[in-house]
Amino acid sequence: MNTPLDARSPLVFDTRELGRRPGAMKRLTREVESPRDLGVEFVKVPDGATIELDLRLESVMEGVLVTGTARAPLTGECVRCLEPLDQRVEADFQEMFSYPDADERGRPVAEPGEDDEETYLLEGDLFDLEPVLRDAVVLALPLQPVCRADCPGLCPDCGAKLADEPDHRHDDAVDIRWAALQDLAETMKDGEQDNEPRTDGDDSQEK
């Protein structure tokens, strides 16, 4: 059994003022604390960070249409140079919160393949924005976060940060797959030199 929504929760909103009057609209802004684990492996919204919300609530025949924008800080690391990130994300979203007792005749006909989509319901006059917010923010995150678009990354040979050393290079760089073979070749070469017969000046005088 689902836990009843708490009207005091920062991500729970009250639609009572709309009064189920189609066409009624309400705009509001709110700053809320970020829920936990809002992000992906390399980048996320810090737990407890402030998320700025701009919302528009519209009463329609089948429920309340919520349109909004969320803005939040991001932390993580650049996938190229592994340096810490300090950026922001802006995510737009729109979702219908349906009346549980709405007349089915007042609802739009679902398109093929839409039956599997999650349906959000109003609980009395309340709705919980967290699942919608979470989906919108995660989808807006960069798949490959970088500290800057032209970040050159790290040197593949020594790990040096190339942005700090633009002229960094290795003249004698050897593919790691061939390093052991090169060491073996140098060892054999040194051994051959040690085994070469020595020629003295007296040998040339012997007949």
From TrEMBL:
Pfam families: YceD (PF02620). InterPro entries: YceD. Residues 184-207 are annotated as: Disordered. Residues 186-207 have a biased composition (Basic and acidic residues). It comes from the Bacteria. This is DUF177 domain-containing protein.
